[in-house]
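Morning run. Coffee first, then this:
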Amino acid sequence: MRNKIARFVIKQHKEKLSANETDILIRSASRSSSYAIRESKALGLTIKSISDRKIIERLPNGEIKIIRNLQQKKDTDKGLKKGMILCRK
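And here it is:
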């Protein structure tokens, strides 16, 4: 399967030489992940992902389990600003 994906990415890269490198990378990553998800479903494996600040696990039978809720990090202001020079004493 890796060879298929690699050939596909190389083919896409050759077709769109004028396209931005970042766009090509994003497109190939999304296609590769969709292939991986399809393969995992075919093999009956679970798929873990993040959705709405929750880590979820999708089981092969279609059931969804919430593993953990994610919390938003608190913004901490440490008094450092961009461009500051730090001196060691």
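The chain has two helices and three strands. Good start to the day.
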